[in-house]
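Tokens in:
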């Protein structure tokens, strides 16, 4: 089973497995979306089934909600939880200040709402997600379908005065049709290559009518658990200014690795 996983998948797995240790009995936990977050949900499901861990999970997408229920996690809505102890989620990029680009999986809106409503946000990522400057990964921006092309033109025009290296954008597709988010919106991917001032860009984009939210997570993430393909993990905490290292034995576990769909 182990042989079938690529080094990147192993890195995602060990980051997720290590971060699952943050969840304690009685917590309300935001559950991210994406392949790394899917490992987390599976690891937490295993702790529920095998160790009797009791917590409530708030998923950030219908995909995550389905998986969480499948593995035995009690799922509640954000409004039922009101406030969360912790959110654990993946990222497309993170920099040295733990600012992020998210939304590669199209769930940035719920992800940002849930992370912002949490005492602590922990990002789980393979080392390939670390960048010096954000922007190589196209920045996802969720826009309402009404007049999306006008919104796109407005965004591209505004980018002229921003500290970025590109300003082309594309509508995310799902086959032949535009991708539709859980909230019924579309996603524009901004090919910026380099974002010089992510904080300013995030504020400016969100001021445009038609924009619902952008994938820049500024000052939201507290901790990143970085996974490596050889089982090493590094835990970087921006508030404490600490870096801790650990190593996880990559134990083959039929239950955990069976039927991994995401
Ligand atoms: C979904 C996200 C994901 O966290 C991000 O795309 C990373 O995904 P993966 O863990 O599959 O690499 O933001 O909207």
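Residues out:
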């Amino acid at each position: 089973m182990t042989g079938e996983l690529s080094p990147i998948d192993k890195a995602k797995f060990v980051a997720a497995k290590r971060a699952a240790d943050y969840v304690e009995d009685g917590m309300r936990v935001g559950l991210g979306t994406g392949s790394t977050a899917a490992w987390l949900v599976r690891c937490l499901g295993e702790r529920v089934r095998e160790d009797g861990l009791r917590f409530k999970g708030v998923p950030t997408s219908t995909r995550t909600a389905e998986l969480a229920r499948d593995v035995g996690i009690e799922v509640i809505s954000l409004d039922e939880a009101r406030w969360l102890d912790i959110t654990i989620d993946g990222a497309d990029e993170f920099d040295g200040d733990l600012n992020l680009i998210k939304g590669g999986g199209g769930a940035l809106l719920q992800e940002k709402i849930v992370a912002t409503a949490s005492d602590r946000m922990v990002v789980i990522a393979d080392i390939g997600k670390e960048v010096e400057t954000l922007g190589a990964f196209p920045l996802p921006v969720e826009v309402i379908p009404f007049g999306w092309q006008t919104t796109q033109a407005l965004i591209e025009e505004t980018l002229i005065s921003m500290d970025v290296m590109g300003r082309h954008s594309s509508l995310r597709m799902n086959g032949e049709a535009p991708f539709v988010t859980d909230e019924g919106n579309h996603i524009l991917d901004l090919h910026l290559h380099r974002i010089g001032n992510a904080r300013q860009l995030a504020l400016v984009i969100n001021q445009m009518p038609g924009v619902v939210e952008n994938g820049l997570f500024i000052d939201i993430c507290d901790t990143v658990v970085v996974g490596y393909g050889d089982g090493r993990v590094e835990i970087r905490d921006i508030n404490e200014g600490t870096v801790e290292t650990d190593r996880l034995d990559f134990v083959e576990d039929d239950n955990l690795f069976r039927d991994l769909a995401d």
